[in-house]
Amino acid sequence: MPLNFKPYKPKTMGMQSSRKPITKEDVDKAIIQRAKQHNQLVHGSYALKQQLGEFAREPKDIDIMTSRPRQHMDKTEDMLDKMAGYDAFKEVVMPIIGTEGEYVYKVVKQNYGPGIDVVDYFETKQGVKTKRIKGVRYEHWKYAKKVLEGIVQNPDLRHRHRKAVEDLRRIKAYEESIRR
């Protein structure tokens, strides 16, 4: 009597060929498309870049707020691995410095050395002001300005001061440009 069993299929089975490398633009586009589909909130430097244009600094990763960050981290990592054609990304869960009991769920690109952040998922916060651009929800730059001012005034978040001051300087330059 033959045994009925399913052979093990590795996670990377059925993915596209690894001959075609994917670019950062491909990855960012896929993440933003997923955020649009699931009505997630994009915030941080990527949201500022979309609204301030040339005044904002170049974002290194995409920060997204969602009600189920762990689930979206898993699905995004699987989607990006499928796009790459091999196991190119991994998941990392880290506590947020300066807060107790809050975590950031990251998808990072695996390489020879420390991982490169691709997307960070956070638990949704109440009262965030948003703006829709091409169907994607972004944190409004005026709300981001208030958050950045709070970071600069908080001595416990000293590790974030340099980036916050830089972003505030750029927002102020943007405000000056729209007043003219």
What does this protein look like?
- The chain has helices at residues 24-37, 45-52, 69-84, 141-153, 161-179, and strands spanning 41-43, 62-66, 89-95, 103-109, 116-123, 130-133, 136-139.
- The chain has 180 residues and is an alpha/beta fold.
- It has a domain at 24-139: Poxvirus poly(A) polymerase, nucleotidyltransferase domain (Beta Polymerase, domain 2, 2-Layer Sandwich).
- A 7-stranded mixed beta sheet has the order 3-4-5-2-1-7-6.
- A hairpin with a 2-residue loop joins strand 6 (130-133) and strand 7.
- Helix 4 (141-153) packs antiparallel against helix 5.
- 24% of the residues are buried.
Structural class: alpha/beta
Q: Report the C-alpha radius of gyration, rounded.
A: 19 Å
Query: What's the SSE pattern?
Result: HEHEHEEEEEHH
Mean pLDDT over the full residue set: 87
**Main sheet, how many strands, which sense, barrel?**
7 strands, mixed
**How many E-type strands?**
7
How far the N terminus sits from the C terminus, by CA atoms, comes to 83 Å
* CATH architecture label name of the domain at 24-139: 2-Layer Sandwich
Low-confidence stretches: none
For the largest sheet, list the strands in their spatial order.
Answer: 3-4-5-2-1-7-6
CATH superfamily of the domain at 24-139: Poxvirus poly(A) polymerase, nucleotidyltransferase domain
Indicate the overall shape: globular
- Beta content comes to 15-25%
* CATH T-level fold name of the domain at 24-139: Beta Polymerase, domain 2
Count of separate DSSP helical elements: 5
Helicity, in percent? 25-40%
Top CATH class of the domain at 24-139: Alpha Beta
